[in-house]
Design goal:
four-stranded mixed beta sheet; 303 residues
Amino acid sequence: MKIAVASHIALDTIQDMKGRITESLGGPACYCSLTAREFKFKVELATKVGKDFSQDSRLMLHNNGINIEDTHITDSPTTRFRIILKKESRDLFLLSKCSPITIEDIKEIQTDCWIVSPVIDEIPYSVLEEIVNDNDNVEFVMLDPQGYIRTTTPDGRISLLNDLKLDMSGISAIKVDPQELSALTGGRKGIEGMQFLQVCKGVKFVLSTEYRIIHLLYDKMHYWIKLPEVETAYSTGIGDILSSAFCCAYLKEKDPVWAICFGAGAVRAALEANLEGLDKIPSKSKMEQSASYYYNTLSFQKI
């Protein structure tokens, strides 16, 4: 099976709480793709990088079954972020932004699933519409709207929009955090907001994350999984790992409950690895250990 990921590759400069600075490949294009490769999915990217993107990075991705084609390379610099980690949050700064993804970049891609996850507004709404309307090609579309609600201040600091009007017709699944959920639903929170996305916006699977809890709303059932407390400063990319693991597990088994358990298992394994950057992506066997436990212990209620 095959997954396509629409998102910019990002080059992350990460400063941890001790002031140590590391450079890492990042962005959903990397986290989602490498997670999907753990499930033995073929992966194709709709992405853009600059000529500053190193051959070493290109080779590393190639060795993991992910190809950066010449058509992905533009004259604009690769998207770069500076991430300053704090105890319970992080500050995010945009250092450079690559060229937007176009309809030409996606129209020839044949895939079973799209993960659409902009990092900062690089996927125009027309491209998203083209992806979801390709009914003869794609079976499943997962949207992470993080890059649609991000904006920048003059000094490059990332801030978040409080309100976002987004056509979600044709979206199979969405993953949101509390701020994204509020922006997409006119300020609604929790289950009320999730129901709004399902009933009023037509999204079949609504995944919502909050501190240590992962929720799934499917049909008229609410499922949730509480994760253990894990001490780690390295949470960058965790949401991307969740989205990709959910999609892969669902496409293989067609069971959304098993898929959310697999997603939660992937999150737990990644956090417990306590590793920086892409090194935190767990093996499928590590994901499955926790997924099996969660499948027998998750909470649920009819709503």
